[in-house]
Queue: 3 jobs
Job 1
Amino acid sequence: MSELSGTDIDALSEAEARAELPGLIARIEAANTAYHTHDAPEISDADYDALKQRLAAIEAKFPSLKSESSPTEQIGGQLAEGFGKITHAVRMMSLANAFSDEDISEFDESVRNFLGLKADGPLTYTAEPKIDGLSLSIRYENGRLIHAATRGDGEVGENVTENARTISDIPQTLDNAPEIIEIRGEVYMSHADFEALNARAEKAGDKRFANPRNAAAGSLRQLDPKVTAARPLKFFAYAWGEHSEPLADTQIDAIARLETLGFKTNPLTRLCDGPGEMIAHYRDIEARRATLGYDIDGVVYKVNDLALQRRLGYRSTTPRWAIAHKFPAELAWTQLEGIDIQVGRTGALSPVARLTPVTVGGVVVSNATLHNEDYIAGRDSRGEAIRGGKDIRVGDWAQVYRAGDVIPKVADVDLARRPADAKPYEFPTHCPRCGSEAIREEGDAVRRCTGGLICPAQAVEKLKHFVSRAAFDIEGLGAKQVEQFYADGWIQEPADIFTLEERFGQGLQQLKNREGWGEKSARNLFDAIAERRTIALHRLIFALGIRHVGESSAGLLATHYGTWENFEAAMTRAEIGQGPDWEELLSIDGVGETLATSVVTTFHQEAERASIDRLTAYLTVEAAEKPKSDSPVSGLTVVFTGTLEKMTRAEAKARAEALGAKVSGSVSAKTDLVVAGPGAGSKAKKAAELNIRVIDEDEWIDLAGGA
């Protein structure tokens, strides 16, 4: 988006971006856990959204870097313990974010481009306040409330049915409703009720809640419904999941239908004709923000025509037809007490500023990213001055900037307040954890520890990644346990996890006697490890921690190769820059040379390959699921070439993938079908040479089930 694509992003080199990602992702993951799992946010929603926006901007500029556990491919957080689980019939998605008026114009343009609509043609949107609460999905069948679930990770949420029944804004029964309907909205707490709740808590000697969102989330996720019933929770409905019949033809009429069913909807929801009216309504809501009586953190825009929403579809975690326009950021000054160096799983040395705690917009900030050594020295990737050439030194008074960029970030320093004895910071040339030389390759903005597997920081971070939610997700084996077991010598590499109980013989006895463990928790851990001996292919590929391979690209690789045996054999045979296996790898839509080189290199490095082989010896790897589609194009590899006239290339690609086809960017012997429009050139010619079926756009539309 525009604010994130200004000077800072434009000047960012690929090497600088690669150096920045580990620290950026670590902050997002920590915030995810605190916010979604523990209902105890450590940073504000604006901070969290801005962190993800920064990450998305970097990934947009450098697609090959979309790999470092990318949180942009995730929704929500891990489930809290103590609740049953409910699988959402229709996935609950996140929203992409915008931070400026230009972003909204770009959003409108992207929608029009995807649909092939004229820039000045009619296109309306709804605009509504973005409630700062907890997302909830409520399922009704034959008019009766069946169950209610939090968003969770988007696919599976916590069963809070009995708690939801205590909220007066949620009807127990519906009249004249579809036979099946899932109503979605936000549970929140008003400012007045929040203050009264905290007053009662203080009088009783209990802990105060930090903010209304925290109070609402904590209240809904009580194990005792009686506690929830005593809390003043409210609910705004704004969307739906599975439904047996349409609510309406447009978003605005569907919202009106929700009202007739007995739900409260936000009275500030408006129909807007284009970006001008959308932004005007945003300004109006922003002006009323302090008097609404409940927390909001922006405005949500949605394409009004539901048929167009269906055509636009979804990215991996967000709909193309909606966006959240967030409220702006703030600045604060504080003193820089020190600079720490963190070592990531790829060996990157990332500097972090330790700050005298300062409150910025109600959030206490005590550390901030410093990007890399050039940023500290006052230079950009081209060696040109930033901040007027001012370097950053311990003892400086630093300006902390939040939202719309790295959050928190040291944006500037005040030379007038610089201590007389402040010295230029000397970036380390050796790893602070293992002492190995830290080298900076030509053209790279980051120094990397050369210690590899002997570096404890890299080893621990790789293990943390291995057990992360999108990878093996072993219940009971999180970051803290990994650190503990590594320090004790119990786990040094992923394969060790699956021999833990066996190697100790009486492992249960040893573990249950440790602080924080009991017989039940120890047994549960070993059982959880055993359960993960069977793993999905895309999870295994992601878990390996190969540089540049994130959840999305791991999924692409898994879908293309199908089985671990196929993938492993192809990577073993592949030679960088040449040969059929290399060409096949590059033919996967979304796989570039940087990612391909990283994957092939990993499989040809002796130590890395040996570690992978030791791991997979203990695993049963499930083949990639074949798309659930009875479409005749399901399972085919399709290449689009030339000009499409009835739908855009983006829409055609999205439609093909939704029907279970693989879309490739190049023609090879493994291509099944080429869709050629006017102007088709070398790809159509190569398809003819290989005797591959070539069809025109009309034939494609018929094959894909109509326009």
Job 2
Amino acid sequence: MQRLPSSFPIAIVVAVLALAPALATTASGAELDTERFVPVEELEPGDRCVGKTVFSGTEIEEFEVEILGIVRGSAPGSDLIVARAFGETLERTGILQGMSGSPVYLDGRLVGAMSSTWAYTKEPIGGITPIGEMLPALDAMDDETGELRGGSGGFGRLLFPEGEFAASRIGWLATAAGTQHSPGDLGPGAALGSYEGRAMTPIGVPLVVSGGDDAFLERVNEILGAAGVSVVRGAAAGQTDTAVELEPGSAVGVQFVTGDVSWTAIGTVTHREGNDIVAFGHPLFNAGRVESPMVTAYVHTLLPLQTVSQKFASGGEMVGTFLQDRRRMVAGRVGPIPDLMPLKVRVNEEGYGSSDFEFGVMRTPPYSSLFAGLAASGAVAQAVFSAGRSSADLTLSVRTGDDVVEYSTTFYTADLPMRAGGELAALMDFVFENSFEVREISSAELTVDVLGERRQTFIERVDIDRPIYHPGDEIEVSIALRDWKGARSDESIRLSIPASIQDGFLLLRIGGADSYHEWEADRLGGGLRPRNFEQHLALIERSKPGDIVVAQLVSEEPGLSLQGDELRDVPGRAALALGSSATSGAVDLVEYSLVDQVEFTTNREVHGYHELLVVVREDN
């Protein structure tokens, strides 16, 4: 047994070896083919192994590895092999992001995959995932019993600039539909920086992104960094024409977006069984059953960094499909490539023309919404002349089954690219996260009209034409609007009082979309909840775009909502009786019944709220 080099940090070795006997054992290697694979039980500190990975281009190179210790039961049902790598390149860089999955062999038998390391370590020390914990993915490759859904979703709101989601049209839709929850878990996470860098973490995965400016890439890094992903600018996939046959040690990519831009996570193939491969040695997002393009990869250079160094690589040719994203591996099959969701983005900017983009996006919900939104954000960042505070009109079209969901809004935002992409991702989440049907999105289109000035207006004053009205009268309402520069404009609308109305008071309220959404949620209460998918989509029609002014006349008499649809002209006593006797949950009381509603659009985002009491008397 070869002795450890004197330069090795002894404290880590002592900690590893002291913990190993005290931790629970696992049976991860019990059924391995020991002629090809090494069970954890056979390994001993000091064993000399050989690793394989790509440091340049597509050529697989070998490096030496020494086993330092085995931590049994490092996680439930899992063991961890701690090792040190040797070689001129790794002595200079340490363990590299992009090495995830690099196979390690002992006397020609596969031990496992390089998968974890420490930040700021002075030597190339890392963890190896035992191959016995990765091979089960091969048996699950054809298992289609689970839904092609990777998590709880809600990722759209992650893209929104701070404070803008709650007041947005799509934010109200999420609340009304009951899908307003914390965003789903993006994956296993990285602990870089925790314990002052002393925590072992999965080797970070370089996510090569083409398109978008530096500010956009930094924002993406903030969003995806929690999953152990490091965003790096790179070329679009397919830029290298070198033919590559994937084998253990080859660089490989999981592609989330292709087309006019490319988003590709780079790792290394651990093992190939026929056309099936396992890679990475840790999950990307722990999404379960997935369908993502498998691509070859080309390493341009290595980036030695103080934290964890990185392979600078690009995705290449699409050669198959990744089908599993599990706790200890990513696995897929060389051969047929997956069907992608078409996404079209058009950006029109006053004075600068139009830009058009087309993408294909992975279909696994809810990650398809996340990466569709990010890709759209990158396209907007690339197209607009200035990405500072700005106003925009946005139009979305999403096709799901036989339904075409159309959505539009106007907003003033601190970050136009992320707001536009966030609206798309959140609308896709709205379709995916309904409580009634499993829905796929077959295609999506986004148009962003960037306006040349700040377009916001405020409701400054509301007046009515007289103090007292009779049943059957019309109310003439004057509305004074003031833009952010102080310029005023006046609008006049009419609302009708039914001839059947009784003496008393009506409440007139005037507001922009944000105010309307708030008061409707209060007025309808449980009656706003959808009872089926059609009503779920119908919430979009109930919601209002940002450039609208809504005038609503309501009565203090309670009303009814039957299975999510509001009933008009129900007498107050009848409404109370029906609401109190309903036990099925199909009938909900409405706090104030709607008498009349009128709305008009402006070319500006509207803010403000006013209300007036309207007196109704049959006789003066």
Job 3
Amino acid sequence: MRKLYLSLCLIGLSVFAFGQTYLIEDFSGGSMPPQNWTIDNQAAQWSINNASEAGGTAPEGKFTYINGVFTTRLISPQIDLSGLTSVSFQFRHFYDDYSGAGPLAGVATRSGGGAWNTVWEINPTSNVGPELINIEITNADVGEDDFQICFYLDGNLYNIDFWYLDDIWLYQQLNLDASLSQITTSPYLGEPTEVSGVVKNFGMDQITSVEVGWQVDDGPVTYTEFNGLSLDFGDTYDFTCDGMINQPIGSYTLHLWLESVNGGPDQDPSNDMKSMNFNWVSHVVDRIPCFEEFTSSTCGPCATLNTQFVPWCENHADQIRLLKYQMDWPGSGDPYYTAEGGVRKDYYGVNAVPAVYVNGDYIGYVFSGVQPAFDNAILQPGLMSIISSHELNGTEMSITTTILPFADFNAFRVYIVVFENVTTQNVATNGETEFHHVMMKMVPDANGTTVDLMDRMPYTIEETVELSGTNIEEFDDLGVIVFVQNYSSHEVFQSEYSVEEATFAEDATLTSILVDGEPLDGFSPDVFDYTYDVPAGTVEVPMVEAVITDPNGLSLVVPANEIPGITTIDVYGENLAVHNTYTVDFDFGIGVNTNAEKAVRIYPNPTSGNVYVSGVEKGEVTLRNIAGAELGNFTVTNNGTIDLSRFEEGIYFLTVTVENKTVLNKKISLVK
């Protein structure tokens, strides 16, 4: 019956979803004002911000300061609340103060187009938020069929920097309403991992217990009960479920739901379930935090921050990668501002300096946020490795960068940036006498290079850039930083410095392969494919270990999922670009049709698309990628053809089965 409950939850979305919800706005439509909303006064100052300053998810709404005393309102469409006596209202916001005497900020309601009635208001003397606000509205406007709600600013609008809004929700509160508000398990996993999330109480009754279920794809379901809770309205509870996710390499979907609340069904099942796509990666390394600072030599607060931030960066030089963009404000701005820095500023939505970002997340403009952000960043798994070298010939620089991903990443951006370690000639008005890691040139430009990265397939970028005409003071004081970023989410997945005039070894061979601790018979570094017979009935895949020739290289062992099956060993030279794949094909020594195996041929190899199968009167061919994921099944007859042209370049495996017996496993290289 529990599996049936999950199905009912899914069906229930069409019946109950938004049954108690009257207004939702998260600005994802990308327009300001949002559809059917209006703005009263100063419409040009309201915009969409591609960031998450309010604490939600980008994009969000934003008001920008203007000189003058005004009242401006962002007004909802009319909403029919007939028959109601109360509604709940929730939103996220961040009030970025300028002077300590900013305008009033508030929420008001009206009906019939009449006067506005304030239901929430603040009179800030400093920054407020980011915070989540919950309001219960019971005034006379509730119950009308033309109810409206607005956000307003009232006063001298020059005394605020910005007001950010997100996740606006108007709804009717139920007695018992728990929400599965978040899945906190990482979307990239490489070792057995617990399932975690956050439950929130949106109802009037206190929540004392919840039962949570989770499932990967169509696999087994795991349930966990959490008792002894005391969650009042608005309270949250961080939970970790029983059981562990442990999957072969590939892409999956995690389903997480509330099975019961206080021992019974929840009154609103529409917010009881979430799903998340995740990848089981082939390898994990340390993630090196990438710090980006937006600053200026005309900015007093920048100097204040840097008195602490610069020494901190020097003390953590081996643990972080650092880049600074000089901005063109306040006043005349920094002399070393460039248009490329402006592109980067617009990408993040930076509107005041100083502003510090770690792995693409804004951490603030004061030093107190630096250490906590670093502590969190180093806990995140590294899902790719980067190695880079550069050489300067006069004012021309050549840069070679190789990225080795441990999962698939589509439409990511690679940024290669030349910086100067210390500059002094951009001194202006804030008292700083030198500036560190100043961006000089983004290569090829501020938009970076868009790439599709495939699991365990090296990706090399070679660039040559002319640096004359930049702000460089000393050409023997340059560095290069490389970082890979998810352009849509801003997350930086890895960063690294380039090494000047470095030469990296290219040996990507093994000296031996061990199977269950014993050397593989007949091993040779120049032979890449092996067959290993196991006794009939063997279930557990033998453990394979690789002994790499160059200790500065890298080897990754990906075990077979079952027998028969293929364990792969990817070996990379120190430069990460040279790559060999060894395979150990495990099969049963008894029951295999060896005559059929000898007769079957798959050719050509490498192939540009078409693969021919001969020696099979009738059989089935299964295509798998290097991670072991099944990509397709084909029925073939003698001299049959399989078209692989729709697949990406790379290494694949074809398994030929005749009368339910595996007669051949073949590694195929697809080259276009």
